[in-house]
Amino acid sequence: MGASLRPARMWPGDVVKVGAVGLRTRPMRAFLSALGIAIGIAAMVAVVGISSSSRADLDATLASLGTNLLKVTPGNTLTGDEAQLPNEAEAMVARIAPVQTVSAIGLIDEAKVYRNSKIDEAETGGIATYAARTGLREAVGAKLRAGTWLNEATSRYPATVLGATAAEKLGVSRAGPATQVVIGGELFTVVGILEPAPLAEELNSAALVGWPVAESELGFDGHPTTVFTRSDDASVEAVRSVLGATANPEAPNEVEVSRPSDALAARQAADEALTGLLLGLGAVALLVGGVGVANTMVISVLERRSEIGLRRSLGATRGQIRTQFLAESLLLSALGGAGGALIGSLVTGGYALYQGWPVVIPAWAVLGGIGATLAIGALAGLYPAVRASRLSPTEALSAP
Fold it and tell me: Strand pairing partners for 99?
């Protein structure tokens, strides 16, 4: 008996060469299909990378400023009215043994801030006026952009330090004797401008004046609206548990105690929700790219029926035909995935460097994105591959 004929085995290198035939013969169609995949992957990698870089910058900022800053603010009374902290709240909090630094600000409601006296009264720009203690900057870790901070001398005279946002809204870029703004109808000299304060965001849109001049010139009643305290990290929770009762012993339930890191955690949670939304949009783009790959492969099968028939006539098995078209789909998706990962990484790096953030591109995002493209490529190419393998040689060769 003669030896039975076996179909030639296709080695991995042969599979890649055969799968690349369709891409080489139709480069523009392959490029457009891969581009659809690349856009989806680039969106996903960039969203994850930019979010991770932003969080890394936030973590570094918190690490440098410390997360042991606690804030005491008035809550509401039993009748729902806004409560007040006692005038002695700051001094009483300072008596807590582990507390290392205490400072306070007091809101002056009626003292509106304007660039000059000719500005319409309604155009306040949302800038608030606060009486501030001289130790405030050290307590909250705020940095000066220009000028100097309030001291014992300037706190008694019409001098102010502007928060970063307030200075921008007022059009003030430098501090000095020649720069003045109107606060509560009085001219105040801008002696300093702060950098953005991440642990005390209320200062960013504020005009800060000395406590004595606020009482003598602006009608400030002396009640603090926020007391800031710092203690060593090990004592933060212990201090936090007694702050309310210490700041207002008569009505501790009318005091709210928060930690800036908690607010930042809430903001980070909101950022994560937005990240989830953007990832969803990236997934939709990825799905659209997958549909494009599937469409390309189906058309490729219809256009190459004569090629399929010829290969079948020369002994190619159904499995080899399936492998050819499936390999072509995977190659197309891999090109799109690799290109998208590269584009997304470049976008992340460029944006992070522009913002001054550390560049963080999680490896799982890049590898996961490429893995997702391969999975989509396999699914998109499965039906066309099976369809191609089912064509009989005579049917394929007789096709127009």
Answer: 231
